[in-house]
């Protein structure tokens, strides 16, 4: 079992290396070509659109994976595309009313709104990729996932390399992301070997949405507290501050994706053993130690290589401090990722929804209070504080749940 988890995590990691490896190169190209202000606009566009990606997720995969077979996949696929269309319209309507102060360069300019409109078409490709990932995860076939991701990432890097070499406007970069997403989604469709993709079953869709809604709300609250800092920086501080923090967070995002990959690989085994308390909590305990150790070990090398930000452009030396602050919270993200999926496996989605709502409120309030004076330094610190709070809450819940389940098991035995 450990070998299977390691194998699937390996292919997910390869996929992430493909996206983040090319992403790092793209980040360097964009930062060098467009500077801190241009990169700041890029961060505003991509962060705003990516915020709605979780609405496409909606926790549907987690519920779909609990089914015995893939016969209902066509309904999941169709539902996701319908949600993508809805989100495209809604996100652009909201973007139209976002504030902008031209004299202070704070907020969302007309160019940023145009970029959001163009990039919002990636909702469709993201919907397809998420749906196909459910099949890859269901069949433990992450090698196919890797192939699709690698092809799209390579195309994106190639297109952006061409656009940057010809000094094309930033909007062409956004178009490149949309095109590469389409290619990734088409390859994914081919690799899942599902003949029928479009069908609608109201009864099944209704049940799926109701069952997954607590996970969806939890993920949305999670993202709000996870990305509220960028949005609040965008409306409270200058584009320069957004660019500096955006670069440091871009590198940090690669690292915090690793515990998600581990959790994705582990989740099917948690589901398999959830009714066997001894095996289930032995598994959780083992991977709690593994996750914690990996998180701690990753902090050390990245702490010392962070000064390399200056090689991108001297003005990005400001990103070193917020990156190091974020880095200190990395082990917390590893632990919370495991605990989160442990509770989902035990159908505690409603508790997670409340827990992440609590953390989202704390995060937003703290950012509103401290960003005006502390800017991105305050945001980086608040990220760590928020993750520590949610970690403590989840540890207490998992421990109490273990005691409760053991008592129930003992009473049934007697």
- First CA to last CA: what distance? 32 Å
- Mean pLDDT, to the nearest integer, reads 83
Shape: globular
In the sheet with the most strands, the strands line up as: 1-2
Class from secondary-structure proportions: mainly alpha
- The SSE order reads HHHHEEHHHHHHHHHH
Enumerate how many helices there are, as a single number.
14
Please tell me how large the radius of gyration is. Answer: 21 Å
Q: Compute the number of strand runs.
A: 2
Report the portion of residues in β strands.
under 5%
Largest sheet: 2 strands, antiparallel
- pLDDT under 50 segments (min length 5)? none
Number of domains: 1
At a glance:
The chain is an all-alpha fold and 414 residues long. 84% of the residues lie in helices and 1% in strands.
What does this structure look like?
By secondary structure, the chain is mostly helical. It has one domain (2-413). The chain has helices at 2-51, 53-57, 60-64, 73-96, 110-119, 122-138, 142-165, 170-192, 202-236, 239-272, 277-305, 320-328, 330-345, 349-413; strands at 100-101, 106-107. The chain has a two-stranded antiparallel ribbon. The longest helix has 65 residues, at 349-413. The relative contact order is 0.12. The mean pLDDT is 83.
List keywords for this structure.
single chain; 414 residues; mainly alpha; 14 helices; 1% strand
Secondary structure layout plus pairing:
Blueprint: H1 2-51, H2 53-57, H3 60-64, H4 73-96, E1 100-101, E2 106-107, H5 110-119, H6 122-138, H7 142-165, H8 170-192, H9 202-236, H10 239-272, H11 277-305, H12 320-328, H13 330-345, H14 349-413
Antiparallel strand pairs: 1-2
Helix pairs in contact: 1-5, 1-7, 1-9, 1-10, 4-6, 5-8, 6-7, 6-8, 7-8, 9-14, 10-11, 10-12, 10-13, 10-14, 11-13, 12-14, 13-14
């Amino acid at each position: 079992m450990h070998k299977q988890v390691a194998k699937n995590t390996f292919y997910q990691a390869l996929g992430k290396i493909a996206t983040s490896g090319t992403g790092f190169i793209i980040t360097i190209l964009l930062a060098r070509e467009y500077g801190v202000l241009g990169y700041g606009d890029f961060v505003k566009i991509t962060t705003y659109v990516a915020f709605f990606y979780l609405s496409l997720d909606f926790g549907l995969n987690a519920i779909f994976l609990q089914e015995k077979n893939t016969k209902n996949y066509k309904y999941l696929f169709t539902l996701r595309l319908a949600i993508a269309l809805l989100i495209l319209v809604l996100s652009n309507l909201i973007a139209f009313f976002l504030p902008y102060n031209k004299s202070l360069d704070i907020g969302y300019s007309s160019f940023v709104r145009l970029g959001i409109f163009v990039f919002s078409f990636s909702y469709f490709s993201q919907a397809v990729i998420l749906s196909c990932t459910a099949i890859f995860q269901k069949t433990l076939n992450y090698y196919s996932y890797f192939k699709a991701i690698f092809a799209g990432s390579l195309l994106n890097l190639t297109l952006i390399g061409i656009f940057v070499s010809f000094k094309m406007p930033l909007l062409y970069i956004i178009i490149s992301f949309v095109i590469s997403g389409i290619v990734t989604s088409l390859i994914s469709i081919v690799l899942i070997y599902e003949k029928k993709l479009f069908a609608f079953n109201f009864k099944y869709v209704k049940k799926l949405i109701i069952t997954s809604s607590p996970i969806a709300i939890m993920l949305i609250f999670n993202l709000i507290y996870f990305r509220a800092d960028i949005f609040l920086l965008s409306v409270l501080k200058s584009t320069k501050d957004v660019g500096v923090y955006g670069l440091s967070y871009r590198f940090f995002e690669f690292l915090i994706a690793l515990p998600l990959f581990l959790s994705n690989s582990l989740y099917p085994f948690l589901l398999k053993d959830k009714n066997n308390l001894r095996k289930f909590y032995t598994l959780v305990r083992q991977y709690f130690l593994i996750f914690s150790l990996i998180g701690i070990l990753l902090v050390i090398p990245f702490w010392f290589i962070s000064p390399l930000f200056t090689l991108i452009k001297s003005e990005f030396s400001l990103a070193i401090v917020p990156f190091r602050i974020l880095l200190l919270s990395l082990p917390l993200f590893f632990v919370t990722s495991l605990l989160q999926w442990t509770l989902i496996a035990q159908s505690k989605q409603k508790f997670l929804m409340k827990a992440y709502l609590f953390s989202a409120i704390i995060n937003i309030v703290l950012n509103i209070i401290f960003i005006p004076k502390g800017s991105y330094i305050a945001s980086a610190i608040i990220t760590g504080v928020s993750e520590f709070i949610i970690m403590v809450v989840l540890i207490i819940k998992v421990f109490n749940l273990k005691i409760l389940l053991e008592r129930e098991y003992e009473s049934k035995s007697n």
